[in-house]
Specification:
It contains five helices and no strands. The protein has one domain: Four Helix Bundle (Hemerythrin (Met), subunit A) (Up-down Bundle). With 194 residues, the protein is mostly helical. One of its GO terms (molecular function) is metal ion binding.
Length: 194
């Protein structure tokens, strides 16, 4: 029974920290290109908030499971990092709820704090998934290399999308310029081939 609880604990935290939270971050990064679009911006913001709330709820369930079922002596890194993440998630949730208006003077300070907490929670969450897999291996002696590899591939995909989002407007502009150049070249050829 304990083995099932450990697996469920890990699955809930992967679902939260390894899936919902990164997807929520990727979604909110889309706002950089849609600042002026009211309806689309609202959809993006609500999607981000929904994903982060679901992530928060799953972390809370997994934390309650941990407190109720596991030895929490905080003698290993996985437990210590988990506690730090849980505290940071509560702070992050508070900053999300108490967001100042766009015109507010405190908006840039709020944004910096919210962004920094988000990065911290995300990085610690990724690290803690790896330490959790290591703890599972240590406790059960079961091989976790497939899960480590699968999670590493997942993180690489997220990073690729994250970086692609940053460069996507540039890529679209180059493509547009190349298409314009091709059309111009074809028109010139057609003109001279008459």
């Amino acid at each position: 029974m304990l083995s099932f609880q450990i697996i469920l604990h890990g699955f809930l935290l992967w679902s939260s920290m390894g899936f919902l939270m990164p997807i929520g971050i990727l979604v909110i990064r889309m706002t950089n290109r849609h600042e002026q679009c009211g309806r689309r911006l609202k959809i993006i913001l609500y999607t981000h908030a929904t994903l982060q709330i679901l992530s928060f709820l799953l972390v809370t369930v997994a934390t309650i499971m941990s407190i109720g079922n596991f030895d929490n002596s905080f003698t290993n890194n996985h437990q210590k990092i988990g506690l730090a993440i849980y505290g940071a998630i509560w702070l992050q949730a508070a900053t999300g709820v108490f967001k100042p208006d766009r015109e507010s003077k405190g908006r840039s300070i709020w944004f910096s704090i919210h962004w920094l907490l988000g990065v911290t929670v995300s990085l610690l969450g990724i690290i803690n998934i790896y330490t959790g897999l290591q703890s599972y291996h240590t406790r059960t002696m079961k091989n976790t290399s497939v899960w480590n590899l699968a999670f590493t591939v997942e993180i690489v995909v997220y990073l690729f999308i994250y970086l692609l989002q940053e460069k996507w407007p540039y890529i679209k502009q180059i493509r547009s310029d190349l298409l314009d150049e091709t059309v111009t070249t074809n028109r010139s050829r057609n003109f001279f081939n008459r």
